[in-house]
Amino acid sequence: MTKPEPSILLSQQDIAARVKQLAAELNRDYHNKPVLLLCTLTGSCIFLADLARELTLDLQIDFIKVSSYGDAMESTRQIKEEYMPDWDMSGMHVIVIEDIVDTGHTAAYLLKYLASKNTASVALCTLLDKPERREVEGLTCQYIGFSIPNKFVVGYGLDFNQKFRQLPYIGVIE
Predict the structure, then answer these.
(1) pLDDT at residue 15 in the model
(2) What is the architecture, at CATH level 2, of domain 7-68+79-173?
(3) For the chain, is the Cβ count within 10 Å smaller at the N or the C terminus?
(4) Predicted TM-score (pTM) of this structure
(5) Is 102 assigned a catalytic role?
(6) 153-162 pLDDT tens trace
(7) Over 121-170, what HEC string results?
(8) 71 CB neighbour count, 10 Å cutoff
(9) Looking at 29, 50, 88, 102, which residue is catalytic?
C-alpha cells in the first residue's frame, strides 16, 4: 500500500519568502538584545534552520521537546515533557520557535514554564497558526508565518507518524 501524496497548501517558495519576512521582523525587534531561540522538537527544526540563517542577532539556540499528539491526528491535550533545558536563561529574550499552534495547550504550557526562568521576555514565533482550533484563551503568537484552515498538515518538518517531514512544502492529508 502506498501512502497518499499530500495536496499542496503552501509552496516551498511561499514558505521561503515568509521565513525571510519573519527574520526581518525579528532582526528589527531584537536588535542588540541577547536572544535564545528555543526550538520545539521535532517539527520545528527545519523552520528553525531556515529562520536562523536569516537572522543577524546575537543569539543562542536550544531545543525543547514536549508532545501532545503521539500517533494521533488529534491532540490529546496532555503535555508530555521529553526534554526541557535546565540552564540559566535569566535576562535572555526567549523566542519559542513552533511549527504549528492549534489548540494552544502546548504553547501555553511552554510559556508558563519559561515564565518561571527569569527571562527578560518570551515571545512565540510559529510557522503555522490554526486560530479556529484555539482552546486556550488569551494565547498570543507574536510572530506568525501563516494562518491556515483547520486541516491536518504535513511537510517542512511536520509529520504524520514520523512520515512526510522532508517535504519542502506544507501539504494537507485528507
Answers:
(1) 98
(2) 3-Layer(aba) Sandwich (3.40)
(3) N
(4) 0.90
(5) yes
(6) 999 999 998 8
(7) EEEEEEEEECHHHCCCCCCCCCEEEEECCCCEEEECCECECCECCCCCCE
(8) 7
(9) 102
Chain segment 115-157, per-residue pLDDT in tens: 889 999 999 999 999 999 999 999 999 999 999 999 999 999 9
- Which residues partner with 66 through β-bridges? 81
Domain residue spans of the chain: 7-68+79-173
Reference 43, options 171, 165, 169, 168; nearest CA is 165
Residue at grid coordinates 502546548:
106
How is residue 73 written as a grid cell? 491526528
Place of cell 519542502: 168
At position 101, the amino acid (one-letter code) is V
Q: Rg for the chain (alpha carbons), in Å?
A: 16
C-alpha cell at 102: 492549534
At a CB cut-off of 8 Å and minimum separation 6, what does 56 contact? 27
Cell numbers for 168, please give them.
519542502
